[in-house]
Write a structure and sequence with these properties.
alpha/beta
């Protein structure tokens, strides 16, 4: 039996890099459609790299030639126009088209928890999420009207060693290390689910080519739920410091910085806990095993290995100074 042939559009991002590695480990004949050659996450040697820009359909047609695929996964589709392009490119050339959506598309704030795949999609706060919802609507219509073999996957907050899970990235870590106060939204007790990218891959790769995924949506998350205070404390412990937390209402952060506020009010400010029963119905052995405490140590070790990675966002740093001054008790 031939190995399944799968195309990743992208494949070296935070989430997709772990999926690329696991896919080739499990014998998938993996193709990566990539525009560039550099990045912090190496491409698996076993993968075939096709050079093209997915925003330039002619270059994609030239790169893929007459290849057909068991599954095509677009890791970098964010708008309905991106999805329309994919449909035109891959209609009739793949047995499964996988769209990477977002758990932030779910009803925000959620009316009930845990969140399940049938939770309504509605996010009036964040354009990113509304675009993802529009993409899903387009694909569901294509499945209904013409039988396009779609699968929708909704990651939540998935990270690797390169990603600090607070807005501002390493800025928060630098402040902790310097003994400066940090901003945590709300009172820090809302619940949040962080998923290590290697755990995500264990749920994702078995969905490729699986017949019971067609026309269905799945989220893939850890069952490891923490408060934002605990997340900050885990990062502080990895740094060897005790974080000095100042709590600031999310509305106040949004008033001071609309961009930061959109990501909070449209996502992180609300507790999110997920039920992964639907995923386990098709991937029975799925279990997330990497706690954030380990992930926090990986984040610090990676950034400490090269000081050039320790980038401080001066705008966020200055904004946090202002918020700390205004809200320090």
């Amino acid at each position: 039996m031939d190995a399944p042939r799968v195309l990743f559009i992208g494949g070296s991002g935070i989430i997709s890099s772990a999926c690329s590695r696991l896919a080739v480990e499990r014998g998938i004949d993996l193709y990566l459609l990539k525009r560039g050659t550099s990045g912090p996450r190496p491409v698996p040697e076993e993968a075939t790299v096709l050079r093209a820009d997915i925003r330039d359909p002619a270059s994609v047609k030239e790169a893929i030639g007459d290849l057909e695929f068991d599954a095509v996964v677009d890791w970098v589709a964010f708008t309905p126009q991106h999805v329309r392009t994919d449909i035109e490119l891959f209609r009739g050339r793949t047995r499964q088209y996988v769209f990477i959506s977002s758990a932030s598309a779910y009803q925000t704030p959620p009316a009930r928890m845990p969140v399940v795949e049938s939770t309504p999609l509605r996010n009036p706060f964040w354009r990113y999420s509304r675009d993802k919802i529009a993409c899903e609507d387009l694909l569901v219509a294509a499945y209904r009207d013409e039988g396009l073999p779609i699968t929708i996957v909704r990651p939540s907050h998935t990270y690797d060693r390169t990603l600090v899970p607070f807005d501002g990235g390493w800025t928060m870590m630098a402040r902790m290390r310097q003994g400066k106060e940090i901003v945590v939204h709300g009172d820090g007790t809302s619940l949040w689910t962080l998923t290590h990218h290697e755990d995500f891959a264990k749920g994702f790769v078995p969905l490729l080519g699986h017949p019971r995924t067609i026309g269905e949506a799945f989220h893939i998350t850890s069952d490891d739920v923490l408060t934002w205070n605990q997340i900050a404390e885990a990062l502080g412990a990895a740094l060897g410091v005790e974080p000095r937390i100042v709590h600031v209402p999310s509305d106040a952060i949004a008033a001071a910085d609309p961009e930061w506020g959109a990501a909070l009010l449209g996502d992180k400010a609300h507790s999110l806990v997920f039920d992964n029963a639907k995923l386990r119905s098709v991937v029975p052995d799925f279990v997330a095993t990497i706690p954030f405490e380990r992930g926090a140590r990986e984040i610090v070790a990676w950034h400490d290995a090269d000081p050039a990675r320790q980038v401080v966002d001066e705008r966020y740093d200055t904004l946090m100074d202002r918020l700390v001054t205004a809200w320090r008790v």
